UniProtKB/TrEMBL annotation:
GO terms for cellular component: cytoplasm. PANTHER family: RIBULOSE-5-PHOSPHATE-3-EPIMERASE. One of its GO terms (molecular function) is D-ribulose-phosphate 3-epimerase activity. Its cofactor is Fe(2+); Co(2+); Mn(2+); Zn(2+). Catalyzes the reversible epimerization of D-ribulose 5-phosphate to D-xylulose 5-phosphate. The lineage of its organism: Bacteria, Bacillati, Bacillota, Bacilli, Bacillales. This is Ribulose-phosphate 3-epimerase. Substrate binds at S7, H65, G141, F142, G143, G144, D174, G175, G176, G196, S197. The active site is at D34 (proton acceptor), D174 (proton donor). Belongs to the ribulose-phosphate 3-epimerase family. GO terms for biological process: pentose catabolic process; pentose-phosphate shunt. Its EC number is 5.1.3.1. Pathway: Carbohydrate degradation.
């Protein structure tokens, strides 16, 4: 069954704990946390302090998406704050293999993120070292953007690449995921869907999660 990772970027931050429990009760599988530094992307959001505060609120795995420059400098802080997954952008890593090793050294799952214009070949040589590939279906920085359909063949390509290498990795898609675009992602081989506005902008989060799961 496809897993749903609500992005708290679109939650009401004045009652964050409640907003997280609402999607947990609604059947969410992961909590997706968007970390932005105002350099790699033109927005500033969440730091390790907030991740640490969220940790005891939920039993769900915390899927921490780092949209920051120099991720190596912050991986330890996010790992110690309670991240279960840390994903880093290939575009922000000069030594991607080393960064993946660093994440794994904390005993947590490591993932790599590709922006819409980045080809799947960028992960060809590290696919056996990672637990997750996150494909961006918008340009990162903000919630509520339109789904970029050119990600679809990339989903199938990642699936092929994993198969060819005999590894089972999670294939997650992030950005503009709603009831309709979710079907396209799943049909192309995605097994984790991030959704921010399509869940948090709905009054009934359980219904929204079920609609996206299909
Ligand atoms: C975009 C973030 C996404 C975002 C998704 O930079 O990485 O996780 O919150 O929001 P929606 O689902 O509204 O596109
Ligand atoms: Zn994200």
């Amino acid at each position: 069954m496809v897993k749903i990772a609500p992005s708290i970027l679109s939650a009401d931050f004045s009652k964050l704990a409640e907003e997280i429990l609402d999607v947990e009760r609604g059947g969410a599988d992961y909590i997706h946390i968007d970390v932005m530094d105002g350099h790699f992307v033109p927005n500033i959001t969440i730091g390790p302090l907030i991740v640490e505060a969220i940790r005891p609120v939920t039993k769900l795995p915390l899927d921490v998406h780092l949209m920051i420059e120099n991720p190596d400098s912050y991986i330890e802080a996010f790992a110690k704050a309670g991240a279960d997954y840390i994903t880093v952008h290939v575009e922000a890593c000069s030594h991607l293999h080393r960064t993946i090793q660093l994440i794994s050294s904390f005993g947590i799952k490591a993932g790599v993120v590709l922006n819409p214009a980045t080809p799947v070949s960028a992960i060809q040589h590290i696919v056996t070292d990672i637990d997750m590939v996150l494909l961006m279906s918008v340009n990162p920085g903000f919630g509520g953007q339109k789904f970029i359909t050119s990600v679809l063949p990339k989903i199938a390509e990642v699936k092929q690449l994993a198969k060819k290498n005999g590894v089972s990795i999670e294939i997650e898609v992030d950005g503009g995921v709603n009831e309709e675009t979710a079907r396209l992602c799943v049909n192309h081989g995605a097994n984790v869907l991030v959704a921010g506005s399509a869940i948090y902008n709905q009054p009934d989060r359980k219904k929204a999660i079920e609609a996206i799961r299909g």
